Amino acid sequence: MIGKLRGRIDSATDQTVILDVRGVGYQVRVTAGELDRLGTIGDEAVLYIYTHVREDALDLFGFGSRRELQVFEMLVGVSGVGPRLAMDTLSALDPSDFISAVSSADIAVLTQVNGVGRKTAERLVLELQDKVGGIDLTPADWAGESAPDAPVDEAAEALQALGYQRSEAVRSVRRVLRDAGETEVQVQDLIRRALRELSGEGGVS
């Protein structure tokens, strides 16, 4: 059973990365948000792994923190929810958004996930509402094993206040930072550039 991988990013496609660990390439499926956080080809990455064994395949699903893996394992423990639907759920909603939706029985938010209908959403609430209450939602728990960069967190919170979900806000801010290639960017500038991206204008200036 593979529980954790540390290696360099060899290649990446849509929601899949190949991690080179001492010459062995492991193909790992990750969420859209994790794909944005991992970095670029050649960067070192650490992923906590859920190993799914089938008769004809062995699939690896990777997460940047133990907390994210914990939420994923809760999801696949729900009747009718397999690993792929669980990944689609955590790609559409970051763990904190998902936990908030389950805790408040927000069926409308849960059914925004492709493949999650009303009955599945109701089952998620029924089976997980009591369980998710014990998960700590402090920001450090969702950024691997260290706290997130303060400017990223602050800019994401400002975007949330404007109506964006935290998952899309964080992804946009991190993309802006990566594309800009700057070591320091003021929070207000991050917000402005991320808003341009989210509104579809694209690019950085």
Walkthrough of the structure:
The protein has 205 residues and is an alpha+beta fold. The chain folds into three domains: 60 residues, Beta Barrel (OB fold (Dihydrolipoamide Acetyltransferase, E2P)), CATH 2.40.50; 67 residues, DNA polymerase, domain 1; 51 residues, Ubiquitin-associated (UBA) domain (Helicase, Ruva Protein, domain 3), CATH 1.10.8. It contains nine helices and five strands. A five-stranded mixed β-barrel has the order 1-2-3-5-4. Helix 4 packs across helix 6, helix 7 packs across helix 9 and helix 8 packs across helix 9.
What's a quick, concise take on this entry?
The chain is an alpha+beta fold and 205 residues long. The protein is 46% helix and 19% strand.
List keywords for this structure.
205 residues; alpha+beta; 46% helix; Helicase, Ruva Protein, domain 3; flat; 9 helices; OB fold (Dihydrolipoamide Acetyltransferase, E2P); single chain; DNA polymerase, domain 1; 19% strand
